Amino acid sequence: MVCVIFFINRLLAPNNPNAEKLSSYECGEEPTGNAWLPFNPRFYVIALVFLLFDVEMVFIFPWATVFGSHEIAAQDVRWGWLSLAEMFVFLGILIVGLIYVWRKGDLDWIKPTPVVPHTDVHIPPTLYEQLNQEQSRFTVKAFNADTVVTATAAATPSAAATTTPPTEPARKPMFKPAFKKPANE
């Protein structure tokens, strides 16, 4: 029967797709960027809170059936008061849960404004500009193994006079990256 209803819907429903209808849509947010990015957790929290209260409210219907039954009330008058007290306890628990979620801020749809950190350091902005200008003049020189050897020889004057240029090629660095697999835990 479900397949028949879907088939009839396919035959009768208008099919006018356009770019806006085919775009993704989630909880009132405009789609931006890649669809595989994780959603903000607040969507899941709101969905869970809605599901919680929606499912809890389903329990009111059987209560209303029992509370409104004149046959049960005719058997014993205490049934009416007992079911009324039970419903107030149930609704009280729901209201306490709603207040908890509300106070925690999980029902806020507005994105919070970011807090910009502030320090009480009084450094003049001109000092930052001067530092940036000094560091922007830094140039990276090409690496040459011969210049390293001669620079170390020039650093020690007594060794510079007696040392001749090395005949063996410069050694490569001894660093080898080793990636260890974590042990099965």
TrEMBL record:
Keywords associated with the record: Membrane, NAD, Quinone, Transmembrane, Transmembrane helix, Transport
Biased composition (Low complexity): 155-165, 175-185
Molecular function terms, GO-annotated: NADH dehydrogenase (ubiquinone) activity; quinone binding
Subcellular location: Cell membrane; Membrane
Principal subcellular localisation of the protein: membrane
Lineage: superkingdom: Bacteria
Reactions catalysed according to its record: a quinone + NADH + 5 H(+)(in) = a quinol + NAD(+) + 4 H(+)(out)
Gene3D superfamilies according to UniProt: NADH:ubiquinone/plastoquinone oxidoreductase, chain 3
Transmembrane portions of the chain: 43-67, 79-102
Keyword Membrane attributed: yes
Region (Disordered): 155-185
Enzyme Commission number(s) of this protein: 7.1.1.-
Gene Ontology CC: NADH dehydrogenase complex; plasma membrane
Protein's membrane topology: Multi-pass membrane protein
Matching InterPro entries: NADH_UbQ/plastoQ_OxRdtase_su3, NDAH_ubi_oxred_su3_sf
Protein's job: NDH-1 shuttles electrons from NADH, via FMN and iron-sulfur (Fe-S) centers, to quinones in the respiratory chain.
Family in the record: Belongs to the complex I subunit 3 family.
Protein name, UniProt field: NADH-quinone oxidoreductase subunit
Organism expressing this protein natively: Mucilaginibacter gossypii
Higher taxonomy: Bacteria, Pseudomonadati, Bacteroidota, Sphingobacteriia, Sphingobacteriales
